[in-house]
Amino acid sequence: MARSVKFADETLVEDARVESELQSRSLAGQITHWARIGRAIERSGTFDHAQLSRVLAGEAETTTLTAEEKAVWTERFLARMDAPGPGEEAHFDALRKTGGAVGLDASGTIVRAEPSPGE
Fold it and tell me: Which end of the chain has the smaller Cβ count within 10 Å, N or C?
């Protein structure tokens, strides 16, 4: 039987919406999937969140993780790699302003950003 649930965490819902599109799931299906993963982790008794945090911080190798921990690590790692962090955003913004940024246009040609006026 389907039930409605309200989430106060809009970031969770938006993250689930993005992931649901990538995984070809409905929003409800994605949240259900994540809930099942969480339940399995809590029931496993072999999940070490501290160890997972050390690996995510680069202080330990992924080879030290259990299968359950590695599944969570993979999801978190990919989420972190999906978008630039604040420091990277500032770096790229500075490159765009000075004209030091390069990239590819739609046809694959290398293009260089022009300096912003007044820079």
Answer: N
